[in-house]
Amino acid sequence: MSNDNAGVLQTFRDPLVGLPLSHVWRGAGSAIFLEFGRLTGRNRRDGTPGNPRGEFGLMIQWSWRIEDRSSILCGSWSEDSRWAETFDLIRNRTIVELSLVGRLPEIAVALSDELYVSSFMTAEGDPASALFDRRRDTLRTLCVQHGRLEMEIAQPPEGVSGQ
Fold it and tell me: What is the pTM of this model?
């Protein structure tokens, strides 16, 4: 990992380590969302309740897996029936490490009790994951663009504020 990547990652890693994985939910297709820390309720545009958001969130668009110390428990290509039970297994575990792996940066989250969540893109382009810091009035997003780790800072969409 380059020094630039290490510094950018560190700004997310330090406050994340020690937080619980408070909520896990499935997006479209095989996308998953992991919500860390204190949760805030939210409503969809049509007014119905949506999934809560954490202080931090991780979106992995596709190609991910959840592991224990010796095997893959579930992944983006697993039967849908395995997803819920595996999500239940990792929910409320504590983050013990956040790291990048590979020449093109992929995210790896180590949780308590030797459980792990990893992204691994298998299609052309950049790794398709993003880490969100929603603790402030600005939304900080860590993602990969053109093979490099980048941090974007923006005003959150209306109705999505910091904690």
Answer: 0.90
Asked if 55 and 134 count as a contact pair (C-beta separation under 8 A), the reply is yes
- Answer whether 58's CB lies under 8 Å from 34's CB: yes
Residues in the chain: 163
pLDDT tens per residue, range 85-127? 999 999 999 999 999 999 999 999 999 999 999 999 999 999 9
How far from 99 is each of 30, 80, 83, 106, 138, CA to CA, in Å? 22, 27, 23, 8, 23
Helix (H, G, I), strand (E, B) or coil at 150: strand
Sequence ranges of the domains in the chain: 3-154
Please write the tens of the pLDDT for every residue from 143-153: 999 999 999 99
144 within 8 A of 105, measured Cβ to Cβ:
yes
Distance, in Å, from the CA atom of 143 to the CA atom of 128, rounded to the nearest integer, reads 8
| C-alpha–C-alpha distance, residues 55 and 88, integer Å | 20
Distances (CA, A) of 137 to 32, 40, 78, 80: 25, 14, 37, 36
Tokens standing for residue 100 = 């990048």
Strand partners, 126: none
